[in-house]
Amino acid sequence: MQTADFDFDLPSELIAQHPSPARGESKLLVLHRRQNRLEHKSFSDLPDFLNPGDVLVLNDSRVIPARLRGRNALTGGRFEILLLEENGPNDWWAMVRPGRNARIGTAILIGQPGTTSVEPAVSAVVTEKNPEGHCRLRFGGSANIRTLLNDIGEIPLPPYIARDRTGQSAEDKERYQTVFARKYGSVAAPTAGLHFTDALLDKIRGSGVNVCFVTLHVGPGTFLPVKVETVSQHTMHEEQFALGEETVRAVNEAKQRGARVFAAGTTTVRALESVAAMNAGKLNVYEGKTNIFIFPPRRFHIVDALVTNFHLPRSTLLMLASAFAAPDETHGREMLLSAYAEAIRNRYRFYSYGDAMLIL
Q1: What is the pLDDT of residues 323-348, one digit of tens each?
Q2: Which of 316, 326, 329 lies closest to 290, judged by CA?
Q3: What is the pTM assigned to this prediction?
Q4: Residue-number span of the structural domain to which 333 is assigned
Q5: In total, how many domains does the chain have?
Q6: Where are the alpha helices (H) located in the chain, listed in sequence order?
Q7: pLDDT tens digits, residue range 82-136?
Q8: Where is 294: in which H helix or E strand?
Q9: Contact (Cβ atoms closer than 8 angstroms) between residue 84 and residue 69
Q10: Were both Cys, which of 23, 157, 314, 318 would link to 161 (CB 3.0–4.6 Å)?
Q11: 211 with 288, same domain?
Q12: Cα(127)–Cα(87) distance, rounded to whole angstroms?
């Protein structure tokens, strides 16, 4: 398949710049894939589509305040840092812009978010650069820089969400995080989970649905468009994930008795299907990295229903959702893009802070 096959036109005013006034009030477009039929619902209607004995799996990764601002200790030149992966205390891989000025040995003084001031007590030194241009940073001024990120870091909002200064508004701090986020590590939110409230999860549990979790730390490549012409030539970025015993047991038992597994978000799908691909279609406890790339045609071993947002053109997320719309076949792309056209006609809001979709 060609990458251009996954392109579509979206009016810019439908790119959600802020979340809905209250969490959980988004629209929900339901695609019944076997009948290729659409329903317009509200996200609060999601429990109506779940049956007792079903399993709902959520990604409990927590977004870290991963964007830092600083200045070159010698020249005063400005840097923007996006933390990517922690190797150990005060040892991180990061994207540093402008990269050409971040040579090995460069010392960077880290400033407070939303200001031009610099706190000399917090610093970083570039110790290594990899082929992708990412910098390995050794931080100083704290026994563990992680403990200071809430004070010196910013929420790393996607580039299509415009802010005058930084992502440090109270709204973004609260709403660009799921209510069940527990384990720090993501530099982007698992956005399908942003719609869930504690009350909605309690209602789902109360109806006899087992709610459980995976952890997949979302990396910066999540929102990047595929740049190669042929989809199969794309190399997927790696992301750290973990699948625990409780979720493994709940999902395997549900599959054995014929109940359904609902995955909230493409990151959850990637975690579940990564392990299933290594284990003859079943789950086992696992911790490691995945670079699984799901695009049509694709068989799904675990996931029976997908809760997801509306994704960017030419993105791996759109390709995954297209594969899920028609497992083992290629016409899911047409089904999904037709659904997207319907969403555009009905003024659904797109991307991270936008509305949701349920594919059954």
Answers
A1: 999 999 999 999 999 999 999 999 99
A2: 316
A3: 0.93
A4: 3-63+173-359
A5: 2
A6: 149-152, 170-175, 198-206, 245-257, 266-278, 316-325, 332-345
A7: 999 899 999 999 999 999 999 999 999 997 655 544 445 799 999 999 988 899 9
A8: none
A9: no
A10: 157
A11: yes
A12: 13
